Every structure is written in C-alpha cells, then in structure tokens.
Amino acid sequence: MPWYEWILLPLVGAAGGFLAGMLGVGGGIIFIPLLTWLFSRFGLAPEEVVRFTLANSIFLVVVSGLVGTLRQYRQQAWQWQKVLRIGIPGAVASFLLTKLIQYGDWYSKPRFQSVFLVFLLLAVANMLFGKKTADEQEENAPNPMLEGFVGIIAGMVVALSGLGGGVVMVPLFRMLLKMPMRLATGLSLSIIPLLGLAPLLGYLLPKEAPHLPVWQSGYIAWPYAIPMAVGVAVFATLGLKAAKHVSETTLRLIFASLSGVVILKTLYDIIFHHG
Asked: Which helix (DSSP H) or strand (DSSP E) does residue 216 occupy?
C-alpha cells in the first residue's frame, strides 16, 4: 500500500465516524466512494467491486454502531427493547437481500451506484426540508407494526447500498414514530449493528471471493478496513459529544453539504463510467 493511504484511510474513517456520531447515519456516505475507488484499481469485475465495497462499508458502519451503543449503555440510555423490535425484522431483511446479491449478478455496479444516489437524495431532502421536531416533544406510544416496517426498510438499505440504514431510519422515526430528532439519531446508531451483523458474516465467510494482493477474509480487506475502523471508533464518540452542542439546523446543513459532494461524485461516475 502507498504511504499516503495509511494517512487517507484513518482520516476518511474519522470523517465517517464523526458523521455517524452526530447524525446516526452509520458513515456509509463517506466510506463508499473511497472503497469503490480502492477496489476498482484491482481489475475486478464490476459486480465484485460492488461486493467488496458493500462488505467493507458494512463492517465500518457496524463499528460505528457498536461505539454508539456502548456509549448509550454506559449512560443508561440504551433502549434495548425498541432496538430489538426494529432491529430483528431489519436484520432478517438485510440477510436475505445480501444472499441474493452474493449469489447472482443482477445487482451490477451501475445499479448499486443508482440505489446509493437515490438514498442520498432522500436523506438530503429530509435534512433540508423535513419538519423540525422539538427535542422536548414526547414521542408516540410504541407501535410494533410501524417499528417493524421501519426496520425492514432500513435492513434493505443496508444490504442494497452499504449504508448503515440511518439515512432512512432517522427520517422515518421522525415522520412515522414522531420521535424527537436527537432521540431518533441515537436510536438509529444503536440499531445499526443488528442490521449489519448478518450481511457482514455473509461477506466474511465465502471462500469464492476473488483473491486480492492484500490480507483478506472473504470480502473484507483488512489493510483498508482496520485503519478506517480506528478512525471510526475514535471519532464516533467525538461526534456523539459534539451533537449535544450543535443545533438541529446546523446538523442538517453539515449533512447536506457533505452529501452534496458525494452526490456529484456518484453522478459523475454513473454518467461517464457507466458499465
């Protein structure tokens, strides 16, 4: 690996981890463009680039979610019953879709980039134009049906895009479950490990993954995943702390600005590198 990658990888992990801590979105919107570029250099088939990108992004968003969950547990703010009601249906959906992606070539790189772009646009639209929810507002009584529905949609997002699922969980928590913004972001981050665990195991175990000139387990490339994970683990905690001191409007603008850059890059790839 070139020397500059040992600097770049933790920095990107730090940016994604900080964003995850602040907004409860897992950090996938930061990880995916870099991972796609890294794996595209190996001359892999487009569908294999997708699998390596998804696998390593999911690994990183699981790390960010575990950091958030640990912090909530220490602060006695972990809502484990709600996490299970939302996370278990989401984990099942994520696992089934991951299997479909692994054992077929129907989900090509252009489709992957298009799905990623759609989820980003939806997330940005919600952050810019979604109705502000007062932090002191009480959330509705638990609704297991709605909670399970949100979990299934989020699990599908994890499998199809490599995002942590927070890009749809946070807006759906606010719109359907009427949660305050900060409660929605914290809950989203603690559900991410459940959504990502099944597909992560699926990507770690297969022996048919193409061999790269780096240390790997299945589709996880450790020389890329570990430096990024270190950045994620340290800065996710800092993001959680910073979120308490930043207004909701500022959080939305930060998310929209970072996402805008990624949207432009993804559009460029779709238009000029299709197929």
From this structure: strand 216-217
> Residue 137's closest CA among 167, 186, 182, 72?
182
User: Is the pLDDT assigned to residue 140 strictly greater than 80?
Assistant: no
Q: How far apart are CA 83 and CA 138, in angstroms?
A: 18
Domain count, the chain: 1
Each residue's pLDDT tens digit, 31-80: 988 999 999 999 999 889 988 998 999 999 899 989 989 988 888 888 88
Q: What is the DSSP string of 50-76?
A: HHHHHHHHHHHHHHHHHHHHHHHHHTT
Would residue 24 count as lying in a domain?
no
**Global confidence as pTM:** 0.80
Residue 196 tokens, joined: 């990502």
The yes-or-no verdict on residue 261 having pLDDT over 80 is no
109-131 pLDDT, tens digit each: 677 777 778 877 877 787 777 66
Q: What are the structure tokens assigned to 128, written together?
A: 């810019």
Residue 104: domain span: 45-272
Which residues face 220 on adjacent strands? 217
**Distance between CA atoms of residues 57 and 77, nearest Å:** 27
Taken in order 91, 93, 99, 105, the sign of the CA dihedral is: negative
> Which residues contact residue 170 at a Cβ distance below 8 angstroms, ignoring those fewer than 6 apart?
23, 24, 25, 126, 181, 184, 185, 188
Asked if residue 39 belongs to a domain, the reply is no
